[in-house]
Amino acid sequence: MSQGVPMVNDGELEQRLGKACEMARSAGNFAAGKFADLGALTVESKGVQDMATEADIETENLLRRAIAEYYPDDAFLGEESCDDFRFQPGQGVWVVDPIDGTQPFISNITSWCIALAYVIDNKTMIGVIYDPVRDEMFAASRGGGAMLNGRPLVTSKATTLADGLVGLGYSNRVEPAETLGPMQRLMEAQGMFHRCGSGALSLAYVAAGRLIGYYEPHMNAWDAVAGALLVREAGGRSNPALERSGVLDKGCAVLAAAEGIYDALLAAVEGDVAVTGLT
Q1: Average pLDDT value for the chain
Q2: Are the beta carbons of 225 and 261 closer than 8 angstroms?
Q3: Which of 95, 169, 105, 93 is nearest to 131 (CA)?
Q4: 109 is annotated as contributing to ligand binding
Q5: Is there a binding annotation on residue 223?
Q6: Hey, which of 120, 149, 165, 168 would disulfide with 194, CB 3.0 to 4.6 Å?
Q7: How far is it, in rounded angstroms, from Cα 126 to Cα 128?
Q8: Residue 90 near residue 162 (C-beta atoms within 8 A)
Q9: Quick one: average pLDDT of 201-227?
Q10: Which range has the worst mean pLDDT, 114-128, 143-157, 265-279?
Q11: Which of 92, 127, 152 lies at the terminal end of a domain, its last residue?
Q12: Which domain holds residue 72?
Protein backbone atom coordinates (compact mmCIF):
# COMPACT_ATOMS: atom_id res chain seq x y z
CA MET A 1 0.00 0.00 0.00
CA SER A 2 1.16 3.55 -0.69
CA GLN A 3 1.92 6.04 2.07
CA GLY A 4 -1.19 7.28 3.82
CA VAL A 5 -3.30 4.26 2.85
CA PRO A 6 -4.59 2.13 5.76
CA MET A 7 -2.82 -1.19 6.11
CA VAL A 8 -5.20 -3.99 5.20
CA ASN A 9 -3.98 -7.51 4.57
CA ASP A 10 -4.46 -8.43 0.88
CA GLY A 11 -6.11 -11.70 1.84
CA GLU A 12 -8.53 -9.91 4.15
CA LEU A 13 -9.34 -7.35 1.47
CA GLU A 14 -10.04 -10.10 -1.07
CA GLN A 15 -12.27 -11.90 1.43
CA ARG A 16 -14.18 -8.70 2.18
CA LEU A 17 -14.61 -7.97 -1.51
CA GLY A 18 -16.08 -11.42 -2.08
CA LYS A 19 -18.44 -10.99 0.86
CA ALA A 20 -19.41 -7.50 -0.33
CA CYS A 21 -20.39 -8.93 -3.73
CA GLU A 22 -22.38 -11.67 -2.00
CA MET A 23 -24.25 -9.16 0.16
CA ALA A 24 -24.89 -6.82 -2.78
CA ARG A 25 -26.30 -9.67 -4.85
CA SER A 26 -28.59 -10.77 -2.04
CA ALA A 27 -29.81 -7.20 -1.52
CA GLY A 28 -30.25 -6.71 -5.25
CA ASN A 29 -32.34 -9.84 -5.61
CA PHE A 30 -34.52 -8.69 -2.71
CA ALA A 31 -34.99 -5.24 -4.25
CA ALA A 32 -35.73 -6.81 -7.64
CA GLY A 33 -38.61 -8.66 -6.02
CA LYS A 34 -40.02 -5.32 -4.88
CA PHE A 35 -39.41 -3.86 -8.36
CA ALA A 36 -41.53 -6.64 -9.84
CA ASP A 37 -44.48 -5.59 -7.65
CA LEU A 38 -44.33 -1.79 -7.70
CA GLY A 39 -48.06 -1.44 -7.15
CA ALA A 40 -47.65 -2.73 -3.62
CA LEU A 41 -45.06 -0.08 -2.62
CA THR A 42 -45.73 2.95 -0.48
CA VAL A 43 -43.79 5.95 -1.81
CA GLU A 44 -42.81 8.87 0.41
CA SER A 45 -41.18 12.17 -0.47
CA LYS A 46 -37.97 13.26 1.31
CA GLY A 47 -37.86 16.50 -0.68
CA VAL A 48 -38.13 17.81 -4.22
CA GLN A 49 -37.39 14.92 -6.63
CA ASP A 50 -36.14 12.86 -3.65
CA MET A 51 -38.24 9.78 -2.98
CA ALA A 52 -38.06 6.73 -0.72
CA THR A 53 -40.07 3.52 -0.44
CA GLU A 54 -40.16 0.64 1.99
CA ALA A 55 -38.00 -1.16 -0.58
CA ASP A 56 -35.16 1.29 0.16
CA ILE A 57 -35.54 0.87 3.91
CA GLU A 58 -35.94 -2.90 3.88
CA THR A 59 -33.02 -3.38 1.49
CA GLU A 60 -30.82 -1.21 3.71
CA ASN A 61 -31.88 -3.17 6.79
CA LEU A 62 -31.01 -6.42 5.01
CA LEU A 63 -27.51 -5.12 4.32
CA ARG A 64 -27.16 -3.75 7.85
CA ARG A 65 -28.01 -7.15 9.36
CA ALA A 66 -25.62 -8.99 7.05
CA ILE A 67 -22.74 -6.63 7.83
CA ALA A 68 -23.44 -6.85 11.56
CA GLU A 69 -23.31 -10.64 11.31
CA TYR A 70 -20.09 -10.88 9.28
CA TYR A 71 -18.26 -7.78 10.54
CA PRO A 72 -19.63 -6.84 13.98
CA ASP A 73 -16.72 -4.48 14.70
CA ASP A 74 -17.43 -2.30 11.66
CA ALA A 75 -19.64 0.78 11.48
CA PHE A 76 -22.53 1.22 9.05
CA LEU A 77 -23.52 4.36 7.11
CA GLY A 78 -26.69 4.00 5.06
CA GLU A 79 -28.60 6.64 3.14
CA GLU A 80 -31.87 5.86 4.89
CA SER A 81 -30.38 5.90 8.40
CA CYS A 82 -27.51 8.40 8.11
CA ASP A 83 -28.82 10.56 10.95
CA ASP A 84 -27.96 7.75 13.40
CA PHE A 85 -24.39 7.21 12.11
CA ARG A 86 -21.64 6.80 14.72
CA PHE A 87 -18.08 5.57 14.31
CA GLN A 88 -14.66 5.66 15.96
CA PRO A 89 -11.40 6.90 14.37
CA GLY A 90 -9.73 4.04 12.51
CA GLN A 91 -12.92 1.97 12.45
CA GLY A 92 -13.94 0.42 9.15
CA VAL A 93 -17.19 1.85 7.76
CA TRP A 94 -19.56 0.20 5.28
CA VAL A 95 -21.16 2.95 3.17
CA VAL A 96 -24.44 1.87 1.57
CA ASP A 97 -27.00 3.19 -0.86
CA PRO A 98 -29.64 0.45 -0.81
CA ILE A 99 -31.28 1.59 -4.07
CA ASP A 100 -29.49 4.29 -6.00
CA GLY A 101 -31.93 5.56 -8.59
CA THR A 102 -35.11 5.41 -6.52
CA GLN A 103 -36.97 7.69 -8.93
CA PRO A 104 -36.32 5.38 -11.91
CA PHE A 105 -37.11 2.42 -9.64
CA ILE A 106 -40.58 3.67 -8.72
CA SER A 107 -41.15 4.76 -12.35
CA ASN A 108 -40.55 1.18 -13.58
CA ILE A 109 -37.30 2.20 -15.28
CA THR A 110 -34.42 -0.24 -14.90
CA SER A 111 -31.56 2.22 -14.23
CA TRP A 112 -31.09 1.55 -10.51
CA CYS A 113 -28.55 -0.39 -8.49
CA ILE A 114 -27.15 -1.39 -5.11
CA ALA A 115 -24.04 0.57 -4.07
CA LEU A 116 -21.76 -0.72 -1.33
CA ALA A 117 -18.31 0.47 -0.22
CA TYR A 118 -15.88 -0.28 2.60
CA VAL A 119 -13.96 2.75 3.89
CA ILE A 120 -11.15 3.13 6.44
CA ASP A 121 -9.85 6.54 7.51
CA ASN A 122 -11.65 8.12 4.53
CA LYS A 123 -9.90 5.78 2.07
CA THR A 124 -12.23 3.62 -0.03
CA MET A 125 -10.87 0.09 0.10
CA ILE A 126 -13.74 -1.76 -1.62
CA GLY A 127 -16.42 -0.61 -4.03
CA VAL A 128 -19.27 -2.75 -5.33
CA ILE A 129 -22.16 -1.71 -7.57
CA TYR A 130 -24.70 -4.37 -8.49
CA ASP A 131 -27.34 -4.02 -11.20
CA PRO A 132 -29.79 -6.87 -10.54
CA VAL A 133 -31.87 -6.20 -13.66
CA ARG A 134 -28.89 -6.96 -15.92
CA ASP A 135 -27.11 -9.17 -13.36
CA GLU A 136 -23.98 -7.03 -13.60
CA MET A 137 -21.60 -7.00 -10.64
CA PHE A 138 -19.05 -4.16 -10.79
CA ALA A 139 -16.42 -4.73 -8.11
CA ALA A 140 -13.08 -3.15 -7.18
CA SER A 141 -10.55 -3.20 -4.37
CA ARG A 142 -7.93 -0.54 -3.76
CA GLY A 143 -4.84 -1.53 -5.70
CA GLY A 144 -6.51 -4.69 -6.97
CA GLY A 145 -8.18 -3.50 -10.16
CA ALA A 146 -11.83 -3.42 -11.20
CA MET A 147 -13.98 -6.22 -12.58
CA LEU A 148 -17.37 -6.75 -14.18
CA ASN A 149 -18.71 -10.25 -13.53
CA GLY A 150 -15.11 -11.42 -13.10
CA ARG A 151 -13.72 -9.72 -16.22
CA PRO A 152 -11.25 -6.80 -15.97
CA LEU A 153 -12.64 -3.32 -16.53
CA VAL A 154 -10.85 -0.62 -18.52
CA THR A 155 -12.07 2.93 -19.03
CA SER A 156 -12.59 4.46 -22.47
CA LYS A 157 -9.63 5.35 -24.70
CA ALA A 158 -11.36 8.63 -25.62
CA THR A 159 -9.08 11.61 -26.18
CA THR A 160 -11.70 14.30 -26.88
CA LEU A 161 -15.15 15.07 -25.52
CA ALA A 162 -16.55 14.23 -28.97
CA ASP A 163 -15.45 10.60 -28.59
CA GLY A 164 -18.39 9.39 -26.50
CA LEU A 165 -21.14 10.17 -24.00
CA VAL A 166 -20.64 12.04 -20.73
CA GLY A 167 -23.06 11.24 -17.93
CA LEU A 168 -24.55 14.28 -16.18
CA GLY A 169 -26.37 14.15 -12.87
CA TYR A 170 -28.65 16.75 -11.33
CA SER A 171 -29.14 17.61 -7.68
CA ASN A 172 -31.78 19.88 -6.20
CA ARG A 173 -29.29 20.71 -3.43
CA VAL A 174 -27.56 23.16 -5.78
CA GLU A 175 -28.74 25.77 -8.24
CA PRO A 176 -29.82 24.55 -11.71
CA ALA A 177 -27.04 26.66 -13.25
CA GLU A 178 -24.46 24.28 -11.75
CA THR A 179 -25.83 21.61 -14.10
CA LEU A 180 -26.93 23.74 -17.05
CA GLY A 181 -23.63 25.62 -17.35
CA PRO A 182 -21.49 22.45 -17.60
CA MET A 183 -24.05 20.92 -19.98
CA GLN A 184 -23.84 23.91 -22.32
CA ARG A 185 -20.02 24.00 -22.24
CA LEU A 186 -19.87 20.25 -22.85
CA MET A 187 -22.03 20.59 -25.95
CA GLU A 188 -20.04 23.61 -27.15
CA ALA A 189 -16.96 21.36 -26.93
CA GLN A 190 -18.74 18.88 -29.26
CA GLY A 191 -19.61 16.56 -26.41
CA MET A 192 -22.95 14.93 -25.67
CA PHE A 193 -24.62 14.21 -22.34
CA HIS A 194 -26.46 11.19 -20.97
CA ARG A 195 -28.56 10.89 -17.82
CA CYS A 196 -29.89 7.63 -16.39
CA GLY A 197 -31.05 8.72 -12.93
CA SER A 198 -28.45 6.75 -10.95
CA GLY A 199 -25.13 8.41 -10.24
CA ALA A 200 -23.61 5.20 -8.89
CA LEU A 201 -24.55 3.23 -12.00
CA SER A 202 -23.25 6.02 -14.22
CA LEU A 203 -19.87 5.88 -12.45
CA ALA A 204 -19.80 2.12 -12.99
CA TYR A 205 -20.43 2.79 -16.69
CA VAL A 206 -17.43 5.12 -16.77
CA ALA A 207 -15.31 2.32 -15.29
CA ALA A 208 -16.66 -0.03 -17.98
CA GLY A 209 -15.91 2.41 -20.81
CA ARG A 210 -19.58 2.83 -21.71
CA LEU A 211 -19.46 6.51 -20.69
CA ILE A 212 -16.28 8.54 -21.12
CA GLY A 213 -16.98 10.60 -18.01
CA TYR A 214 -19.50 11.64 -15.37
CA TYR A 215 -20.23 14.89 -13.53
CA GLU A 216 -22.74 15.69 -10.83
CA PRO A 217 -22.73 18.97 -8.88
CA HIS A 218 -23.64 17.34 -5.56
CA MET A 219 -23.34 13.73 -4.41
CA ASN A 220 -23.28 12.14 -0.98
CA ALA A 221 -20.70 9.52 -0.03
CA TRP A 222 -23.14 6.62 -0.38
CA ASP A 223 -23.82 7.61 -4.00
CA ALA A 224 -20.23 8.19 -5.05
CA VAL A 225 -17.40 6.44 -3.24
CA ALA A 226 -17.92 2.92 -4.63
CA GLY A 227 -18.14 4.17 -8.22
CA ALA A 228 -15.20 6.54 -7.87
CA LEU A 229 -13.00 3.64 -6.75
CA LEU A 230 -14.21 1.57 -9.71
CA VAL A 231 -13.20 4.33 -12.12
CA ARG A 232 -9.75 4.76 -10.60
CA GLU A 233 -9.06 1.03 -10.51
CA ALA A 234 -10.15 0.76 -14.15
CA GLY A 235 -7.53 3.32 -15.16
CA GLY A 236 -9.54 6.53 -14.98
CA ARG A 237 -9.46 9.54 -12.66
CA SER A 238 -11.84 11.01 -10.11
CA ASN A 239 -11.70 14.10 -7.96
CA PRO A 240 -10.62 13.36 -4.36
CA ALA A 241 -13.07 15.61 -2.49
CA LEU A 242 -15.12 12.98 -0.64
CA GLU A 243 -12.06 11.01 0.45
CA ARG A 244 -10.39 14.20 1.60
CA SER A 245 -13.34 15.50 3.60
CA GLY A 246 -14.71 12.17 4.84
CA VAL A 247 -17.83 10.07 4.58
CA LEU A 248 -19.78 12.39 6.88
CA ASP A 249 -19.30 15.32 4.52
CA LYS A 250 -22.54 16.95 3.45
CA GLY A 251 -21.73 16.14 -0.16
CA CYS A 252 -19.84 17.81 -2.97
CA ALA A 253 -19.36 17.89 -6.71
CA VAL A 254 -18.09 14.64 -8.24
CA LEU A 255 -16.13 14.30 -11.48
CA ALA A 256 -14.82 11.02 -12.90
CA ALA A 257 -13.57 10.26 -16.38
CA ALA A 258 -11.24 8.33 -18.61
CA GLU A 259 -7.67 9.59 -18.30
CA GLY A 260 -7.60 10.98 -21.85
CA ILE A 261 -10.49 13.42 -21.38
CA TYR A 262 -10.45 14.17 -17.64
CA ASP A 263 -8.78 17.58 -17.97
CA ALA A 264 -11.03 18.59 -20.88
CA LEU A 265 -14.13 17.59 -18.92
CA LEU A 266 -12.89 19.44 -15.84
CA ALA A 267 -12.42 22.58 -17.94
CA ALA A 268 -15.90 22.24 -19.43
CA VAL A 269 -17.46 21.71 -16.00
CA GLU A 270 -15.68 24.60 -14.31
CA GLY A 271 -15.79 27.21 -17.07
CA ASP A 272 -14.55 30.49 -15.60
CA VAL A 273 -15.45 29.61 -12.00
CA ALA A 274 -13.95 26.75 -9.99
CA VAL A 275 -16.64 24.37 -8.72
CA THR A 276 -16.43 23.88 -4.95
CA GLY A 277 -14.93 20.52 -4.05
CA LEU A 278 -13.77 19.40 -7.51
CA THR A 279 -10.04 19.92 -6.90
Answers
A1: 88
A2: no
A3: 105
A4: no
A5: yes
A6: 165
A7: 7
A8: no
A9: 95
A10: 265-279
A11: 152
A12: 10-152
